[in-house]
Amino acid sequence: MFILKQQKNNFILKIKNFWDNLMQKKDILITQINNQKIYLLAYKEKNGQKNILGAEIILIKNLIENINNYETKESFKFLLEEFFKKNKIKPQFIINIINEKDYIYKIISISYNLKIEELKNVIKNEVNNNEVYYIEPINIIYENQKINHQDYALWTLNKNYIDKINNIFQTINLNIFGLCPENKTIVKAILPEFQTKNAYLIINISESKTNFIIFSGKTIHFSGISEFNLLNIEKNFNDFLEEINKLIYYYATKCFHEHGASSKINKILVIGNLNNNLTSLIALNTKIKIEKIKINLGQFRFKNEKIKELIMKNESDFSSLIGFILDFNLQTIKIKQNI
User: Which of 253, 260, 285, 318 lies most in the core, judged by the most C-beta atoms within 10 Å?
Assistant: First the structure.
């Protein structure tokens, strides 16, 4: 996760203190903003219980670009304060889920023999001057090859995006604490352990977009976003199928496969209300088993049933926000970034 510098200095960056200060008995607001809507999820952990305090979808067009417009700013401020008041929350921290289109994700390989300064230079060559990055090691085992390098998952993000997101919440005198990429949290929503022996093509489809993610072993091998959505999928179904088959071929022929994980995609997981007939056609065309999967909400305590119903009805929209909560535990906190 990207931790913003202005907040980072207020904490001792040790896992125990970070966990105690951030998660225990604090109201946390998790957000995701696109061109049409804002998704809000209020969360608190207390005595080991994960509590969902509130959830809402706010309709505001182009908030990121228009936040300096007086009417947009006041409207956002009013709606957010009403959300806080209705759910009786006072968020101490805000985590924003970054849309796939706003960051770049890739896997890079770096020689084991590099010194620290050389390692930094290699990473800098992968990142533009106006970008920041988050990096974490991954363990891809290349069968029948002698390995002399370490693989890393690398997310890069434009600094201007951070400024714009911070500007939004400063209208209500709050700062973003951290930013988390949506591809990782979507996987976490359905695979909390972040590992499998299968190779999955995950399709997270909502009314505004589709996320495609290839995940196997312990690694995201590909992620991307498409304009296919629940509203246009039927008339564009052939193109949708073509995209799926390209990704299946890509994984089978272009990716290095982790030891113990399938070398071919052997299951397609769909999050979202995709028509059952279309689901069957995908399975028939690809000859791969397909499953419409539900996010496990059983471990959460909801403040009321309306909150749970809203999340279940818009499961693919809230998948990344729920995934963040499942990802954020003592074992998975990593603070490795250059902000």
Answer: 318
**CA-CA distance, 22 to 18, in Å (whole number)?**
6
Beta pairing class for 49-59 and 149-158: unpaired
95 in Cβ contact with 28 (< 8 Å): yes
Per residue in 199-253, pLDDT (tens digit) is: 999 999 999 999 999 999 888 999 999 999 999 999 999 999 999 999 999 999 8
- SS3 category, 27: coil
Which pair of tokens denotes residue 33? 């903003």
Tokens matching residue 188? 């976490």
The rounded distance, in Å, linking the Cα atoms of 180 and 166 is: 14
Q: Which H or E run includes 219?
A: strand 219-226
Adjacency order of strands within the sheet including 149-158? 103-111, 149-158, 131-138
Taking only Cα atoms into account, the Rg of the chain, rounded to an integer number of angstroms, comes to 20
Record the tokens describing residue 192, joined without a space: 């909390």
Do 220 and 105 contact (CB within 8 A), yes or no?
A: yes
